[in-house]
Amino acid sequence: MADESTQSITINAAPPAVMAVIADFDAYPQWAKSVKSAEVTVPGPDGRARQVAFKIDAGVIRDDYELAYDWSDDQKVSWTLVTGQMQKSQRGSYTLKAVGSGATEVTYNLAVDLAMPMLGMLKRKAEKVVMDTALKELKRRVETGDGAPRDLRG
User: Fold this and answer.
1) What is the pTM of this model?
2) 33 pLDDT above the threshold of 80
3) How far apart are CA 74 and CA 150, in angstroms?
4) CATH topology of domain 4-146
5) Among 6, 8, 19, 7, which Cα is nearest to 141's?
């Protein structure tokens, strides 16, 4: 069974604006560095994806996989692995909570079980880097509308 990791970040935008970026899978390759492609394979009746196929390259881990999503308005989205090459299982979620005036606390939970063995210490470090990067990239995308670092935007 995979261990669950949790991290949080505060984003200077209301929950609907944050969730709109999370739900825009077509744009992921523009701002999420490890995502090489994201394709909605099963759209939902409400316009939000039910299943999405990803190709990622996160250095040590390269994978093609598909996730199934469950949306709870603009408060939470959770997902589980449908198929994957390097992963046996994945479950995760973003939980959004309005804080202060117009800000959102985003809590990211992730549990991944890889098909190949990996030392626990290395796996935890990789999870921390993936989560930290994902939250920072999400924050930058929401707050600036851009995935490029400030010094590259011209």
Assistant:
1) 0.85
2) yes
3) 28
4) Alpha-D-Glucose-1,6-Bisphosphate; Chain A, domain 4 (3.30.530)
5) 19
